[in-house]
């Protein structure tokens, strides 16, 4: 007997969330074998929706459940694409005569959604109030306006705000946030639209473990997830495994996939009752999520979900475009600054340290540093937020003892050089270029503070939930925040690849400065 693995806070990245063997109860899931359309499995709640137990029709043809006309609609749909929207499936009333009658049906009309999973076909049915479909034109107009608003945003901040605003408008949820993944897969809330009585989450950070790796992988594949009521009773699949292969059913693409209980507990601790989450995908990576929260049960229908998904897809493209544009303009800006510095250095007759001092903002901006030190033959110039001169000199000595490579950078100086713990609020990350010319050394060192000191506490991380007993809150934003603080301890924001390239280029300028400097010194000596 294989004892199933229990998943908790220590091993949640191993939970196979794509094969829970369970569904959410707000619809019916039916597994079909192609091409005959024999029913292989079904969610147990067919009893609730159709007044029949799955055992009654498993192994039989789909036409035992729905009318032959509807079966042929499905067959036609299968000729076209994997994911097809089928309207208004009507349950075959013949099935019910004799035992329970038609008025026992939870609904007469269903929306059918089809997709393939491995070798089987999954048909998901959602009860509809009527035969009426939604107003196409109204949806189209909303979408057109939403896309225009997103597109016309004049800054990144406005773009993020507009995305949350549009999702809030269409879902009517209490809170919508954008959760952006950092390079280390931790996350930060960078935009929010919410009901005014709610506390803000803006600026809050969470560790990578809050959205484990297999979940991130799944969300890269599937654009939207939905939990209309987190206090749901999961529904079993009958039978649990595909009877032909005895393998679990992959529900990655299923709307009704039952969600990890660990995530449910987290949402409970946050006080959230319903969620919709849309992925933001940046070329080859899950860039972020648009997370919508509601504090009472709330479902969103197929059309709204499709609109959310489309906004997510459009926003993803827009984000990518703008990122490329801003990288491009950063590169232009860097070129300009480099040129200015070069000019200034070659024109100046006075001490070069002063040149850098006059151009302090430019020098720091080059690599997004908070401070810098320039050391030319023992003369030290400090710019912005830096350690003391003595501490800086000690860093330089340490750098020189490192067999002075061309360029040294780290986002955790305290790990390499223990004394840095004392000034990590100024210099936790360093990026250093050094030149040794005629036995003299020249250095530029950029500093970044420990990350925790750069966080802008717009929200209150100590109070996102009102419950106070700590044990029950192992899975909660507060614990997460503590964990995140641990993971970024002794760390600055990492140096980006292109920033290191910029430093490399700056080395040429430093070389120029060093040459000038030694010429001037020679002249003075003569
Ligand atoms: C999933 N966790 C998620 C998701 C979010 C968060 C947004 C994705 C849900 C979706 O797309 O449908 C986390 N939600 C947050 C955070 C905020 C928020 C940080 O609103 C802040 C405002 N979660 C944990 C821990 C574990 C964990 C410690 O915090 C594991 C021990 C697990 N989270 C976990 C799992 C999933 C998840 C397994 C996947 C749920 C699923 O799709 O089945």
Largest sheet: 7 strands, antiparallel
Catalogue the ligands.
biliverdine IX alpha
Q: What is the global morphology?
A: elongated
* Backbone CA Rg: 30 Å
By DSSP (H or I, 4+ residues per run), the number of helices equals 13
Q: CATH superfamily name of the largest domain? A: GAF domain
How much of the residues is beta strand, in percent? 15-25%
Cα separation of the termini: 91 Å
Output the strand order for the largest sheet. Answer: 1-11-3-2-6-5-4
CATH architectural designation of the largest domain? 2-Layer Sandwich
How many domains, as an integer? 3
CATH fold field value of the largest domain: Beta-Lactamase
Low-confidence stretches: 98-103, 464-468
CATH domain class of the largest domain: Alpha Beta
- How many beta strands in the DSSP annotation? 20
Average pLDDT over all residues: 86
List keywords for this structure.
526 residues; alpha+beta; Beta-Lactamase; elongated; binds biliverdine IX alpha; coiled coil
Can you walk me through this structure?
The protein folds into three domains: 22-129, 2-Layer Sandwich (Beta-Lactamase); 137-230 and 272-328 and 456-487, Beta-Lactamase (2-Layer Sandwich); 348-450 and 490-525, PHY domain (Beta-Lactamase, 2-Layer Sandwich), CATH 3.30.450. The longest helix is centred in the middle third of the chain and has 46 residues, at 302-347. The chain has helices at 46-50, 68-80, 136-151, 156-171, 213-221, 261-270, 302-347, 352-358, 360-366, 389-401, 413-416, 477-487, 497-525, and strands at 22-23, 28-33, 38-43, 84-89, 109-117, 120-128, 175-181, 187-194, 205-206, 224-227, 235-238, 241-242, 247-248, 274-282, 285-294, 371-376, 379-384, 407-410, 429-437, 440-448. By secondary structure, it is of the alpha+beta class. Helix 3 (136-151) runs antiparallel to helix 4, helix 3 runs parallel beside helix 7 and helix 4 runs antiparallel to helix 7 (302-347). The chain is elongated. Residues 98-103 and 464-468 have low confidence and may be disordered. 35% of the residues lie in helices and 23% in strands. The structure holds biliverdine IX alpha.
């Amino acid at each position: 007997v294989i004892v199933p693995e229990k998943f908790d806070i220590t091993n949640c990245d191993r939970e196979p969330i794509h094969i829970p063997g369970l569904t959410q109860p707000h619809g019916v899931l039916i597994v079909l074998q192609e091409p005959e359309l024999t029913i292989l499995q079904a969610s147990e709640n067919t009893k609730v929706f159709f007044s029949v137990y799955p055992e009654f029709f498993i192994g039989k043809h789909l036409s035992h459940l729905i009318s032959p006309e509807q079966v042929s609609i499905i067959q036609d749909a299968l000729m076209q694409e994997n994911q097809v929207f089928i309207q208004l499936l009507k349950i075959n009333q013949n099935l019910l005569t004799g035992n329970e009658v038609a008025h026992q049906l939870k609904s007469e009309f269903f929306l059918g959604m089809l997709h393939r999973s491995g070798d089987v076909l999954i048909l998901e049915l959602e009860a509809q109030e009527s035969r009426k479909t939604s107003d196409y034109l109204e949806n189209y107009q909303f979408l057109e306006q939403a896309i225009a608003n997103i597109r016309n945003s004049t800054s990144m901040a406005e773009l993020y705000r507009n995305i949350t605003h549009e999702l809030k408008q269409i879902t009517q949820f209490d809170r919508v946030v954008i959760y952006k993944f950092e390079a280390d897969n931790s996350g930060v809330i960078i935009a929010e639209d919410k009901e005014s009585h709610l506390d803000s989450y803006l600026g809050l950070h969470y560790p990578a473990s809050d959205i484990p790796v297999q979940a991130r992988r799944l969300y890269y594949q599937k654009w939207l997830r939905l939990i209309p009521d987190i206090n749901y009773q999961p529904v079993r699949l009958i039978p649990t495994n595909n009877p032909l292969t005895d393998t679990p059913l992959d529900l990655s693409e299923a709307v009704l996939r039952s969600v990890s209980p660990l995530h449910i507990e987290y949402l409970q601790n946050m006080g959230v009752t319903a969620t919709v989450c849309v992925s933001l995908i940046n070329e080859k990576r899950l860039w972020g999520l648009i997370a919508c929260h509601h504090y009472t049960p709330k479902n969103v229908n197929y059309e709204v979900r499709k609109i959310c998904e489309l906004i997510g897809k459009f926003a993803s493209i827009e984000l990518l475009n703008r990122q490329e544009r801003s990288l491009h303009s950063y590169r232009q800006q860097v070129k300009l600054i480099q040129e200015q510095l070069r000019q200034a250095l070659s024109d100046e007759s006075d001490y070069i340290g002063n040149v850098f001092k006059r151009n302090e903002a430019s020098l720091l901006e080059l690599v997004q540093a908070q401070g810098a030190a320039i050391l030319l033959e023992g003369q030290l110039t400090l710019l912005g937020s830096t350690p003391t001169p003595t501490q800086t000199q000690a860093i330089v000595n340490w750098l020189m003892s490192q067999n002075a490579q061309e360029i040294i950078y780290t986002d955790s100086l305290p790990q390499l050089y223990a004394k840095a713990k004392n000034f990590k609020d100024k210099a936790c990350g360093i990026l250093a270029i050094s030149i040794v010319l005629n036995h003299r050394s020249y250095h530029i060192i950029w500093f970044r503070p420990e990350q925790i000191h750069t966080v802008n506490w717009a929200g209150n991380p100590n109070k996102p939930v009102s419950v106070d007993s700590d044990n029950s809150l192992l899975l909660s934003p507060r614990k997460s925040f503590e964990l995140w603080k641990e993971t970024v301890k002794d760390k600055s924001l990492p140096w980006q690849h292109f920033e290191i390239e910029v430093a490399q280029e700056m080395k040429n300028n430093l070389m120029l400065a060093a040459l000038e400097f030694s010429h001037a010194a020679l002249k003075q000596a003569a």
